[in-house]
Amino acid sequence: MLPDIRETQLGDALSERYLAYALSTIMARSLPDVRDGLKPVHRRLLYAMRQLRLSPDEAFKKSARVVGDVMGKFHPHGDAAIYDAMVRLAQDFAVRYPLVDGQGNFGNIDGDNAAAMRYTEARMTEVAELLLRGIDEDAVDFRQTYDGEGSEPMVLPAAFPNLLANGAQGIAVGMATNIPPHNVEELCDALLHLIKHPEARIETLVDMIPGPDFPTGGKLVESREQVIEAYRTGRGSFRLRANYEVEPLKNGTWQIVITEIPYQVQKSRLIERIAELMQARKLVMLGDILDESAADVRIVVEPKSRNVDPEVLMESLYRQTDLEIKFNLNLNVLDAEQTPRVMSLPETLKAFLDHRHEVLVRRSKHRLGKIEDRLEVLGGYLIAYLNIDEVIRIIREEDHPKDEMIRRFELTERQAEAILNMRLRSLRKLEEIEIRKEFEELTAEKAEIEALLADEGLRWKAVSGEISEIRRTFAKSTELGRRRTEIGAPPSDVVVPMEAMVEREPITVICSEKGWVRAMKGHIADDADLKFKEGDQGKFLVRAETTDKILIFASDGRFFTVAADRLPKGRGHGEPLRLMIDLGNEEDIVAILPHSAGQRLLLASTDGRGFIVNSDDVIAQKKAGKQVLNPGGSAKAQVCLPVEGDLIAVVGTNRKLLVFETSEVPEMARGKGVILQRYRDGKLGDITFLKAEEGLSWSLQGGRTRTETDLTTWRGKRAGAGKMPPTGFPRPARFT
């Protein structure tokens, strides 16, 4: 027989198969059902545990037994995946209301894995029993298992609002879900309110459900407006912070004790990260961190100084570590028609209520059918008691007693069969009284159920009663029901400057004539005994701090920027500056100085031209630097000075001195500049800033200093030629 071969386009075949795979992933693996809040693997785990009779009051069974049953009967996937899902349902730090009661090592908040399933044991919790309540009463639909040998529930009856109470996470194809856990008492309050007011405003519901309730506690610091918007759209985020206490110690010292960490943050990894930041000197206010946790979380944070503000210290930790996280909300679930969509909070709550209403109707109809069946049998028994002698005679004498009783007493076939199957001792008077009592009780119950099914108001009242019972069971007065996540106000704007995040240490940047650079700890003196390579000598000595950016100005007019903490350390002779920046072989270094925000710098070239520039505009992002000053012709950049006075003194190599107002020099971002001093034969010698009231000072031989206060002779306008300096002015013409 020839195989059935069909021709089709590759694109069509791929899209069809990928769509089938995507739908399978979305519906059969990753997204929870809005009604019971479970994915298929979790639903199958609970149903298998029920079949194994692992109720809360029964003995534990090995986890391997449960996993084996789930894999063999319902879930044809790997045992590791099934066991991982089961472990999570038992972790009280991962699930707000655990569904599995685990015995043995089921992992911990540090991120350690659970023991192998052959070592651990498990059974259901009371919450899991609530999810399964009524499953044998035709409350939900069943379908065949993957091998066709059994059946499994498509959804659980779910007398517990599990979706929002325990949350869910999952990644499918093209979509994902991320739902935080909530407090059941608050959920019940909102459900009861929705039954009375189906069109309740989202703001009213948020009054009852102010935010998630994570099993690991913490403090929710999201604004009410953001919470309302997240619940309205089904998408958003919640900012969650660790909780801490400040413990006073002797002599005015103190320490911070972190008692609760954010949800799904591994404690050991958190502490490792903080230690790494300390080693990188990015948490300068933090002295040490210790893990003193036992059953409860206790992380001790010691400040470097008792003068540190605890709030500022914690703010720096919040900003740089997982002591503060953002938990994203994505209420993407499968609705009652198994269609994936993002729901709002009211839609999710209403879907649960609709499911509970449907379960109530189905269970009531199932119970009504059972009662009617029993009443039919009891009616036959009562007829038999009223005509006991005739019944006995028919059974003893007639060849076909069943047919005769049906004809004689107008019984149904089932009633006749029940009479024939009665035991002789059931004919006693006491038995008749009990049957009559049962008949009356069932008749009354039947009337109640029929009234319930006929009145929607009574049905919703019954649903309210079930929810109220759950609310009482998990009230906040109980250990399991108490709210663990504190609802806090959005944090105040505590200003933590970036300088506070990194340790500031004084350093001295030393650069030699041949361009070897190094950074030594501390601010060393100008006359310090420094060593250089043979034939080399010092040229620049700049005092800075480790947090500074170092500006380097080259003779071609380019600025380079190097982080101070990246300079080679002070041991040895350092490293060539050309390894850090693209400095050409023909260029020399004109100036090295630490960057100061907003500082104004005077740049000048050998031809006597220049301008003032803001230091923020010269920071270079690339190794090749930033062209700022453009010397013309054969000229080169020669001067880079901070603006520190109201007058500028310029002297040329022709020994002409000119003093003019600083305000005459324009501020520019880049360019050639304006003429500072005009030369007929010569070029720029030196520039300095001065204040009019202090006069002009210059250095003399022997370390002496001379000051000229009357500068009238040399005062002029910018771009003048200037006049010869006072007697005793240095040769060559320099101010220092």
TrEMBL record:
It catalyses: ATP-dependent breakage, passage and rejoining of double-stranded DNA. The active site is at Y119. SUPFAM superfamilies: GyrA/ParC C-terminal domain-like (SSF101904), Type II DNA topoisomerase (SSF56719). CDD domains: TOP4c. Residues 717-736 are annotated as: Disordered. This is DNA topoisomerase 4 subunit A. It comes from Nisaea acidiphila. GO terms for cellular component: chromosome; cytoplasm; DNA topoisomerase type II (double strand cut, ATP-hydrolyzing) complex; extrinsic component of plasma membrane. Gene3D superfamilies: 3.30.1360.40, DNA gyrase/topoisomerase IV, subunit A, C-terminal, Topoisomerase II, domain 5, Topoisomerase, domain 3. It is a peripheral membrane protein. GO terms for biological process: chromosome segregation; DNA topological change. Heterotetramer composed of ParC and ParE. Topoisomerase IV is essential for chromosome segregation. It relaxes supercoiled DNA. Performs the decatenation events required during the replication of a circular DNA molecule. PANTHER family: DNA GYRASE/TOPOISOMERASE SUBUNIT A, DNA TOPOISOMERASE 4 SUBUNIT A. InterPro entries: GyrA/parC_rep, Gyrase/topoIV_suA_C, Topo_IIA-like_dom_sf, Topo_IIA_A/C_ab, Topo_IIA_A_a_sf, Topo_IIA_dom_A, TopoIV_A_Gneg, Type_II_DNA_Topoisomerases. The record marks R118 as: Transition state stabilizer. The keyword ATP-binding does not apply. Belongs to the type II topoisomerase GyrA/ParC subunit family. ParC type 1 subfamily. The keyword DNA-binding applies. Keywords: Cell membrane, DNA-binding, Isomerase, Membrane, Topoisomerase. Signal peptide: none annotated. Its main location: membrane. GO terms for molecular function: ATP binding; DNA binding; DNA topoisomerase type II (double strand cut, ATP-hydrolyzing) activity.
